[in-house]
Amino acid sequence: MNKIVSKELYSEKVFKLVVEAPLIARSRKAGNFVIVRIGEKGERIPLTIAEADVEKGTITLVVQAVGLSSTKLIKMKEGEYLTDVVGPLGKPTEIENYGTVLCAGGGVGVAPMLPIVQALKAAGNKVIAVLAGRNKDLIIMEDEMRAAADEVIIMTDDGSYGKKGLVTQGMEEVINREKVDKCFAIGPAIMMKFCCILTKKYGIPTDVSLNTIMVDGTGMCGACRISIGGKTKFVCVDGPEFDGHEVDFDEMLKRLGGFKPQEMEAYEAHAS
Ligand code: FES
């Protein structure tokens, strides 16, 4: 059982949860994730670790309500307990001194990007972060990113904050302005797909963190399988980060949409 120490609202559907998990706080690295469960029979929800406080023994998770389980999770209150939190899972991010690194985070993808930006800075890189969202309310963790990166560029679809435009427009501006040695992109699959099309055009190596459906998180069930360079990989144990230019995003998008009718049914049954 893991206690929810604090809960903070980012926007109507996005929350920051600080959860007691001392062992995970101590051993997590950038790129790792956890699987959270509410109730013995609850769905297993994969969430990337945004921050960890080793002294307090807590980890920070950012949750967006997209289906029944994540909606249940964000309805939980401070002081309540999650049934379990398993992790740290997945391979840590490959951090090197690349030179100038462009980090693109879309929506809640900014949360898993934060520890990567911090680790890249610690390794001596110049880090430029592009944070994107549909509108101002969907831009999260801006202060934390400003504290970690050399430069932060905000892009909103409707122009309600920062510059008006898509994340790829913000990225291309930077690429045209200075030499970029490496990119990281984390966000919705469709966003990562277009970030990778852009960086491929400019020949910039790009890593993405994939948010597939997961069940066991240990490489046993195959729910998270994905094609990388024509080979089947499991996101939970081989990833979650991969060479974005090798990912079959169309297959991933199809698989992500595969359970939408069942998800809607479960959500409506719960709500009624
Ligand atoms: Fe089951 Fe990855 S979640 S194999």
List keywords for this structure.
272 residues, 9 helices, seven-stranded mixed sheet, alpha/beta, 2 domains, Rossmann fold, Elongation Factor Tu (Ef-tu), domain 3, binds FE2/S2 (inorganic) cluster, seven-stranded antiparallel sheet
Please characterize this protein's 3D structure.
α4 links the parallel β9 and β10. Helices cover 31% and strands 33% of the residues. It folds into two domains: 2-89, Beta Barrel (Elongation Factor Tu (Ef-tu), domain 3); 100-256, 3-Layer(aba) Sandwich (Rossmann fold). Strands 6-1-2-5-4-3-7 form a seven-stranded antiparallel beta sheet. A seven-stranded mixed beta sheet has the order 11-10-9-8-12-13-16, sandwiched between helices. It has a two-stranded antiparallel sheet with strand order 14-15. The radius of gyration is 18 Å and the shape is globular. By secondary structure, the protein is of the alpha/beta class. FE2/S2 (inorganic) cluster (FES) binds next to loops.
- Biggest β-sheet: strands ordered side by side in the sheet: 6-1-2-5-4-3-7
**Order of secondary-structure elements:** EEHEEEHEEEHEHEEHEHEEEHEHH
Any idea of the CATH topology of the largest domain? Rossmann fold
Helix content: 25-40%
- Helical stretch count? 9
CATH architecture of the largest domain: 3-Layer(aba) Sandwich
The named CATH superfamily of the largest domain: Nucleotide-binding domain of ferredoxin-NADP reductase (FNR) module
Question: What's the structural domain tally?
Answer: 2
Ends apart, CA distance between termini: 29 Å
Shape: globular
Short description:
Helix content is 31%, strand content 33%.
